[in-house]
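User: Please predict the structure of the protein below. I'd like the answer in structure-token form so I can feed it into my own downstream comparison script.

Assistant: Understood. Taking the following sequence of 636 residues as input:
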Amino acid sequence: MKLRFEGHYEELMLGVQLLIKELGIDLQEDGLPVHIEPSEGELEVCLEQDKAYIRYGQKHQFFRGLGLLIQHSRKSSTFHIREKQQFDQIGPMFDLSRNAVLTLDGFKSMLNKMALMGMNTVMLYMEDTYEIEGEPYFGYMRGRYTHAELKEIDDYADQFGIEAFPSIQTLAHLEEFLKWEPIKHYRDTKGALLVGDERTDKLIEKMIDAASSPFRSRKLHIGMDEAEELGRGKYLDLNGYESRFSIMTSHLEKVLEVARSRGLKPMMWSDMFLKLASGNGDEYYDKDTSIPEEMASRIPKDVDMVYWDYVHLEAEDYERVIANHRPLGCNLVFAGAVWIFNTFGVNYGLSLNASDVALQVCKQQGIREVYATMWGDDGNEGNPFAALLGLQLYAEHAYSEQKPTQEQLAERVKFCTGIEAEAFMQLKDLDEIPGSEPNNSKQSNPSKFLLYQDVLLGMFDKQIEGLDLDSHYANLELQIHNKRDKDASLDYLFEVPEKLCAVLKLKSEIGITLKQAYDSKDNNKLRHIAMNELTAIAEAVRELRIAHRSQWLRMFKPFGWEVIDIRYGGVISRLDTASVRIMDYVEGRIARIEELEQERLVYSTVNRFNHKGVGWCSYYYRMASPNVFFHVLNPF
């Protein structure tokens, strides 16, 4: 499509040039004239009588408007679109701390998609993955960003009017830094800093300077969530017992002093204050939580509180927790989620429904700043590009007073990403299997635990008995394959899910079959499993690993891939051992297979037998074995 810009467009051209290829446009003198001009705040896009105009209030709105112009011109020669932005700031939070650190090219590719969606902010969650001068162990071998890399990300985002800013940790969630013996003087517990120590205070100054200096933005997320261990380690030995609230408010004030002195605008996760105010001290969503006036008076008011909520499906739940925050007296920010946590897929059933409700409540409650988090817990088998349908939902909510329709969402995500909404939605079925609660509302993650569980130990076999998962994954493999579009630049995202289904259609129920054959003393079946079925599974796992490695190295730095590599190697090695053990039994070299003598038990009380889904496991090492992987009491 040929276009010719007129009016006020000079400051937009760097961004336009970056999107020309994705949009399929040429800027030519004989192109469709598009008049560009500022507005009072609304976004307005119009095409009529072979001419068009885009009126925008803020820079980022123009790029959404440009996309809308091209999208709608493909099906209509006349249209008039007017949108009013419902949130001052809307964008994703990328987890760059759990092994998967986006490359610069990967980040820029994501920013291109965000620009077309009309997002205007991005939060970089970095626990220790940014460089601090004089602290060589901070982010050591973890793919940490240099100052220059962060500045390049910021510069690129700014061309689209997108505000990039850092989210760091200044209290807890620092396990990957604090594990190093040479810096043990910073450690209270395995994940929490030793607050009150002068060395820790100096470290935090360096953290804030290193994280904030590459960015134009003066915003800084200082973390401080889930600090339940605070004051219960070395701090307790040195200072005796002190309430976590007192320790936390004292430390927060020190962190804020640093931020204020540098002209920064801080925000923090709100959960610790609500947990400390709840009756049992650890319940974030307690409907009866009430912030005492004495507590509220001690909490600084110049820090924004970020209320995070990823799971609730009823408006009343959000309204209640928002009301619980009000006595804090701080500006309230909301963080929802697109569930790529702890899975190879995306829990779109939960994510889209929870986000629809949460974002409508935020509009009604006057919350003006909203983020979509994409955590990478336990090594990050998933990826944020698979979550683009969820991000599109956030974008469409941001420009509509009402909940966007499914048709609107589908049209927009196809235009902005090149991928059909239905193709993205298939990723939910990696986990939303027979036996799941509707929309996988209980967050089962069988795509991960069925891959990693040991075939001889069958840790999750009881959870999935009778569900015919081999057929489920065989059908899903075919559906994913048939929905792929080789001409789409993001088609490669579906290679790993397709290959995973090829594994799980063979492996998901093999433990059940193996145990049945052993219990019935069917040696012919056991021999066939050992010589044929386990060999086929191992080959499918090798193909999955190769596809996953290619995908990882295309979007992430190499650091952290070794963890996934080792996991695949573990699956293949255990398949080999299982084959050897079975053949030793069949051929009479051993009298029994002890692992198969054991009764199969449910993994947890969270299972389909009490309507809690087919199970959830947060950690690879618990999926792979019930035995000891490491001992943490004295890691040195």
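That's the full token string. The mean pLDDT is 96.
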